[in-house]
Amino acid sequence: MMQAYLDRKQEAANIGMMVTALMFGFAILGIAVAYMVAFWWMPLGDYVNIRLDDFNTYEYIVIIASLIYAAGCARTAIGLSSREKSSLRWSQWMYFITVMIGGAILLSVIIPVGLKFSLLLGQNIDLRAIINNDVGGLAPLALSIGESLISLSLLAAGLVALIALLVFLIPPLESLREMDGIRMIVAPPRRFVLAIIAVLAVGVIGVLIAGAYVVPLYPGTTTIRDAENHRLLAGLLFFLPGLFGYRLVRQVEEESDELRRAIALTPGKFIRAELAKSPSAGAIIGFIAIIMAFTMATDLFLEPSSVASFLSNIATKGVIAIGVTYLMISGEFDLSVGSILGVTALSFMNFMTHGAPIFGVMEPVPAALLAIFIAFILGAINGVLLISTRIPSFIVTLGTMLAFRAITLVAIAGGRILRYSDHHEALPVIGISNIVFLVLAVIGLLVVAFTAYRVLPVLYRGAMHAWSIQNDNGDFGTTGAIIRSVLLAVVLLILLALVIWLLAVLSYHGSAGGGEMVEVGYFDLFNGRVLSIGSEGDFVHVQIPRNANVRLAIIWWFSFVIVFHVILTSTSFGNSIFATGGNEGAARAQGVNVDRVKLQNFAIVAVLTGIAAIYETARNPGVDPNKGTGWELEVIAMTVIGGALLTGGYGSVVGSLLGALIFGMLQTGLVLVGIESRLFSGTIGVIIIVAVILNTFVRGARQN
Amino acid sequence: MQYEQKHRDALVDMIDIHKYFGSVQVLRGIDFHVDRQEIVGLLGDNGAGKSTLIKVLTGFHSLTRGQIYFDGEAVNIYSPHDARELGIETVHQDLALVPLMSIARNFWLGQEPTYEIGPFRFLDKKMMARESIQALADVGIHIRDSEETVGTMSGGERQSIAIGRAVYFGKKLLILDEPTSALSVGETQKVLDYTIAAKEKGMSVIFITHNIRHVYEVADRFTIIERGHKLGDFYKSEVTENEVADMIVTGQIPERLRLYEEDAVGD
Predict the structure, then answer these.
(1) Of B80, B114, B152, the CB nearest to A572
(2) CB–CB of A703 and B151 under 8 A?
(3) How many CA atoms lie within 13 A of B186 on its CB side?
(4) What ipTM was estimated for this complex?
């Protein structure tokens, strides 16, 4: 039908006009949003400052994004009205993006409403007590418990309906089947599709009514910053017409001549296939959803201090999760990491306070190295036990978990805590020369230069190529070339900014004189507050808010993630890890030394756990015998959220990073929102199951 | 006991192979040989001993008595690794590829090409993609995208990739263990085509099956095993498809063929 419109057929004129007009409408809407944020009052959310003269990053992002969106819509609409060929694909994408934006805005209404409503329910009884005691200031509740329950179930039903609607949108209903060598399209009856859409739409409208009805009842939210109601309108404006237009342009394409290609190009299917390429698809979706939910629900979540605190809390576990991911990809399992952490932390502390057998009382760095070596041996024990007995790793590491725990329990009797300060008067200190910072800055410059050398020519060639074929490449050739040029410019600017920052560091430390020593605590070097390193809180010339608890382990963690990600994806060792977990027989048949891979992975987990133990001990120089208890399951939870398969052969280090971040955000965010921290484990449980379902769903495109 | 190689030019010559599992005699003196660039159909009913014979050749089982010559030399094959070193590639029904890995990564598994930056070696992904597509195209397998996971492919496509890989890495002997038993008719045909392509590239192929229809078209010779003994070797020109099928079922050589049989075996 849409193709017919582009071919100037008379019968398709109405639909074509409608699609074009809608597109123009969205362009105007995008400009209107940018205008309102920039020059007028537009409630974006709790986090955004409502004062006109006080822009923040969030607002700038919204303005730029909506302008880009408006430009895209306008270009598509112009293309449609002049009946350019490529405008079909563009309109599909623009409508798809519109639906996604609308859905996101609606979610940003529903999630905080849901959170606040559940809080309301929780407070229901308390509030009555408060009212009875006549403690002033709080509005009495208009709902009885029964009414609340009805509203809540309406809310839940609506939420489920909205999610179902989005899910329904993502995979194409039509599927390509191959029967007896003939490819055919199996589509459900249109009536069935319409019925589903109608039911889901009723659900969505239900939730919105419930939400609008409930939100103002929450004490303290009926203010001018009650942004949910305003977002509701914006969300509906984007979502419903967008969905309508998307169904129009998509339906049209199915009827076009290039049937097969058309279905392969459906945006929903494309996105699902793209997500399926990454093991951490579920984690990415969850990550975005959780950030959105908490950002919308509370001002405090994006405060530097909250971000820093959850990053600091999760960094050590994140380091262990990297190793556990490796192990899980190779098809094994380690329950003993918590105990290994305890033993390593104890050894580290013991070497510094009581001394090691041969070396005596040790300095922090050699003590740390020796402790990590002990962790390595413990990991090797796990590995050797596994490959020599062929007992499942679950059993082996369950045994070693208990056995290794006995070491700390025996060594520190009576539940005491081994403290550094009980044996030494001051924390250990080391002097670092300014030259170290200079060298680091030079290394940074070299890395930037190398990146530029590798990336810029590729982008430049791509852009030049796009310009050279702008007239051959359909009607949108010029637009594509402009997009590529802008991309090149953005990357160039980012690299330039990095260079300027590094040069500033160079000049700052260079002018301070080469010989100047900076006193740094040893423990701070392992995992100190970044503030406490360097003089006057001016670590490598970046201002960090004083109240932010940014710890060095975060930087270590991110570096480990990069290094181990590269090893996993770009070396033959990584390849053999995947093969070992994916199909041990095949790996063996191709000459992969499966046993060695497993042994190495157990050692990697143990060493990373040892490093994490050093961070933990450096942060709080005291070890109790139960240190690390329960960590093993938390770390496995992170890894599973991150998309690793328990059966092996699938997973990613970036996924473990996202899993750990989700874990940390929930831990901090739930407290900030005001939900009892006792609910945390329940929430994590739900998240794990949802994440695994999501992962399985997107993997459906990858594996039969 | 001294053995002498009977077939001078054969790629594989297995002489008087005995294999006992405790008191169970699975192989009772089998002579089996594969000539160069020859496709041999190894046939027999379930439990006849054809799998055991191949497992002896590929090092999964050690032989009780007998001698194996490979490429003209007496060899002792103690492990699958030894067999691999000799250039024997086995394509099992489900043990060939890792489903969750991409075609390129499966293709190069165990011998990945790398480039070096300082002391570090990184996978040469571009070359892996290019070479695997090219190598598979050489044996007639055209894939869409080397990054596609093997799990999304059909059984026949998987077998084909495993065969293409064996051809590319210059193996001398390809053993296909029941490659077509779970495939559709069309896919079976493809696998048979690739088997011929492998032969044209200079490999010898042992095609194990109990279904004569799958192999009759491509095989040059049939070796039929019956309860631990070899019933006989038959060149395709000598027998019809139905006769071979009958022999597998009944374990009897038809009257017409007995003369050939005595000539062929001779001892």
Answers:
(1) B114
(2) yes
(3) 7
(4) 0.79
